[in-house]
């Protein structure tokens, strides 16, 4: 499918982004960190045109996201009830959700692609995420210490990459984190723990 197209970053009100298993190459675009990924917890958010971009919708490399999804054809969609089915893994358990999951969950799944380069430090700005899966790529460099800013993150999977360096001690501040996978990388040093 190529690289993650910059126009995806214009969908500022996404709550979940699943582009897993799409043979995506290139780096993780920093512009993804401008998306709120805020769970839709109030009724006023129900009229958002797009809140979930599903990996099963294949785009040609020269298609633009807005036209491919047919946003213009929907017009005013306020009051429409979207029924969505989602398979999402958090805390090592894969769940099938149906209905209004977007009110309670937010996440990014870019696993099983061919992403390269470092993980942008700016990803730590995604403070509303509940789950982040970057596993099974070719990512290099250190684990960003800025991940400690993601206080709502419950599941972080960075396994099966080429990450190096030590696990930042700042990650011990992530109190909601229930799953932390970093196996099959080139990490060194001891696993940090918070002294009480």
TrEMBL record:
Q: Name one Pfam family in it.
A: LRR_1
Task: Give the species.
Answer: Opuntia streptacantha
User: Which protein family is named in the record?
Assistant: Belongs to the RLP family.
| Taxon lineage | Eukaryota, Viridiplantae, Streptophyta, Embryophyta, Tracheophyta
Superkingdom of this protein's organism = Eukaryota
Q: Which residues form a coiled coil?
A: none
Is Repeat given among the entry's keywords?
A: yes
Q: Which UniProt keywords apply?
A: Leucine-rich repeat, Repeat
Q: Which InterPro entries match?
A: Leu-rich_rpt (IPR001611), LRR_dom_sf (IPR032675), RLP_Defense_Trigger (IPR051502)
User: What protein am I looking at?
Assistant: 2-alkenal reductase (NAD(P)(+))
